[in-house]
């Protein structure tokens, strides 16, 4: 009887007390204007204003230095390219001038060999004219000789005018009283001449020729030497 009573009492106690107590439900918290917002902060210390400014200035300085180096490099390249361009232009102009001179020289002295062979014939005409004495050209006794002499002189004048058109000219140093110049004269002998200056040409043994200003054949002359 007693056992039944104890068993009944224990069952009633188990019914009144649950095995596990229910968890207390937390009320939902809604954020309102009065509720402060939750913020997260870093544990690292905030940089100082001076350090931030220095870092910014360093970055700006590095960028300016790089830009300056790039500008200097471009300026150097421009100077080098300009120098190469000017050199190329100068070389091209020199080539043009040199080619022009060579072409002109080829034109001017194309007949050089022909002219050198021709001057011998001119010398023969000059000798033929000089062999006739001046007294025999006067009067009516030697009309044939006078006519021949005039014909030879006329032929020589026409020939010299034709050669002059092509740049070939004859010069006589003794007629102009030139001083001796080894570049255009050839001294054959020296002799005293009291009425003339030392070093002047007083006699022409063979006349000289120039082709477009260049000596084709020097004149053979006698030079005064009084000392």
Automatic annotation (TrEMBL):
Looking up InterPro entries in the UniProt record yields: GrpE (IPR000740), GrpE_CC (IPR013805), GrpE_head (IPR009012)
Residue ranges of the region described as Disordered: 1-66
Which CDD domains would you find in this protein's record? Answer: GrpE
Keyword Mitochondrion part of the UniProt annotation: yes
Q: Where is the composition biased (Basic and acidic residues)?
A: 46-66
**Pfam families annotated for this entry?**
GrpE
One GO MF term, please? Answer: protein-folding chaperone binding
> Keywords assigned by UniProt?
Chaperone, Mitochondrion
Where does the UniProt annotation locate this protein?
A: Mitochondrion matrix
GO cellular component terms attached to this protein's record: PAM complex, Tim23 associated import motor
Q: Name its GO BP terms in alphabetical order.
A: protein folding; protein import into mitochondrial matrix
Tell me yes or no: is Mitochondrion among this UniProt entry's keywords: yes
Member of which family?
Belongs to the GrpE family.
| PANTHER family, sorted | GRPE PROTEIN, GRPE PROTEIN HOMOLOG, MITOCHONDRIAL
Q: Matching HAMAP family, A to Z?
A: GrpE
Functional summary from the UniProt entry: Essential component of the PAM complex, a complex required for the translocation of transit peptide-containing proteins from the inner membrane into the mitochondrial matrix in an ATP-dependent manner.
Stated name of the protein:
GrpE protein homolog
Which organism was this protein described from?
Neocucurbitaria cava
Its gene name is mge1
